Every structure is written in C-alpha cells, then in structure tokens.
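User: Before I run my own analysis I want an independent prediction to cross-check against. Here's the chain; please return only the structure tokens and, at the end, one sentence I can use as a sanity check.
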Amino acid sequence: MKRLFFLIPVVIFLGLAALLYVGLFQGPPSELPSPLVGKVAPDIPLPPLDAQAQGFARNELGQGKPIIVNFWASWCAPCRLEHSTLMGLSKREGVTLYGVDYKESLYGKTEKDARAFLDELGNPFSRIDKDNEGRVAIDWGVTGVPETFVVDAKGVIRVHYAGPLTEDILERQILPALK
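Assistant: Structure tokens:
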C-alpha cells in the first residue's frame, strides 16, 4: 500500500510532462487554423493613418490582384523585428502590401509615433489605415500584432498568420498564396 502511495506523484508528474511535451511540440500557435480563411475579407471602414498616407477600404480588396494586409503598431517589438522582412516583401514585383496601424493609443502613442516608426525603418505599405480602437481588428480576428492576411484577387482571405513574418514564413505560406 505504501508503494502505491509513492507511485501517485510519479504518475502525476509523468502525465504533466506528457502534456507539456505535446503543448510545446505540436506546432506554433501562429499556424493554428483561422475561421476567416476561405471567407470574404471583412469590412475595413477606417481612416488613413495621417495626411501623408493614402487609406484603403474593403472594396479595394479583391479587385483582380492579391493584397497582403498587415496589422502592426509602433509600440510592438515583434513588429520592429518583422519590419525588414516587410520592406523586402514590398520590393518584390507583383506584391501589394497594405498596413493597418493598431491601437496606438494603447500605450499612449499617436499616429505621429506610427509615422516616426515608418520614417525610421522605412514604409513598406502602399496604403495605411489606422484602427485606434481595435474594432476592425476584432472583425478580422486579430488577437495581437503583428498579424498578416493574404487576400486573393476575389477578396477571399487565403492566409492568416499571427506573429512576425520571417523569410521562411514568406516562402512557405505568404508567397504561395499570392499565386
């Protein structure tokens, strides 16, 4: 009976270790399926970032060419990490990249901070909207930034990637969806 009593913690430990292993190695959360993939992109009734930016609306998505929509913010450290990847992506022929500046006011920032971010690192976006309250981001299923969507030529979301883009992610997920 005493031996059984000592085996209980060992069994519990092994069970927890197995759960941890599965949780760590089942794949990154950024590759979890999105309910928006395969559906028409939601509305995006937002103003342009500032007077220098040209904004965009939902009716501009799906006009015969695929478009990448990236949600980002100046206060977001992973956004800073992915920025060089976005700059390279924007220089590829046939790639159109739109940006949505997400909740600058969350950390007491403004569109001036977003503009300073772009002035410092470069502007990969041909059009930029601002979503100060995060309402449109909710409709798009954004849980945090950065998040990237590939919208096909018919306005249907083909890829939703949560997290900073890398060259590997571009090659495996983003660029194939543009074809």
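Sanity check: The helical segments are 2-25, 77-90, 111-121, 135-140, 167-177.
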